[in-house]
TrEMBL record:
InterPro entries linked: Isoprenoid_synthase_dom_sf, Polyprenyl_synt, Polyprenyl_synt_CS, Prenyl_diphosphate_synthase
Record's keyword terms, sorted: Isoprene biosynthesis, Magnesium, Metal-binding, Transferase
Organism: Ruminococcus callidus ATCC 27760
Enzyme class: transferase
Swiss-Prot/TrEMBL catalytic activity: isopentenyl diphosphate + (2E)-geranyl diphosphate = (2E,6E)-farnesyl diphosphate + diphosphate
CDD domains linked to this entry: Trans_IPPS_HT
GO molecular function, one term: (2E,6E)-farnesyl diphosphate synthase activity
Protein name, UniProt field: Farnesyl diphosphate synthase
Amino acid sequence: MMEAKHKAYLEELAAKVDAKLLEYVQVTPETRRQAQVVEAMRYSLEAGGKRIRPVLVLEFCRIFGGSEEQAMAAACAIEMVHTFSLIHDDLPEMDNDDYRRGKPSCHKAFGHAVALQAGDALLTEAFAVILRDPILEPEMKVELLQILTSATGAAGMVGGQIMDMANEKRSDVTLEEQEAMCAAKTGALIRGACRLGCAAGFAPKEQVALADQYGAKLGLAFQIVDDILDVTSTSEVLGKPVGSDAAEGKTTFVTLLGLEVAKTRAAALTAEAEQILSQFPQHEFLLDLTRELLCREK
């Protein structure tokens, strides 16, 4: 369990991100004729979530002496990308999930076509909020967009989703292939969040490399814990269906390693992430957060 002061700080950061996201995404004179898609965007953003990715952006920026203002656009941008991916993930053509974070999925609430467009709009808005930010220098905007597009595209999250879909048709997926898929599908945005924060805070190159390594460890551990919870938790706790991977015969870290070995692997990766964190200044909050993600219940 997180220390009370760290839990309060996490909630404070998440609340700031939530408020800024809704400030960015609202019906304007330019979008009043498309109000339904904006409502769908806000619906998905307001569904909540842990806000881990934007928190990583803000915190790595702070560690290197940057301000929240320097990192907030990038923090919101990566959460928009993450939310776009969840909207599309839930569609029948992908994971076919009717619930997300305890609420009907976007396509269940607004229909498939609107959900598809809401996801597309969130992806493009993610780039727009960085481009429009009044305090970022042009060179910084370019650097942040390079990081975000790399984490999002065919070499990152989208590519990982394609690998995941291809693996659904196979019964011979290896551990190495599963880790490569998760490094892209889940890990790319987490690594990207760490790198965005470092860029916003003008971190030295060697520290950026360390942050990237931390993100890779954390991302893999995060996915293994997700696979564990799909077996050990309930729909009421997670706010989404459980057991669907097993029902569909999908390969997971639990099916590859067994439950206990998967738990051991997640703990080992978390310990490696903690060791990397110890090399950063003012790392206590992130250390506590990293441990909390290993022990989380949803």
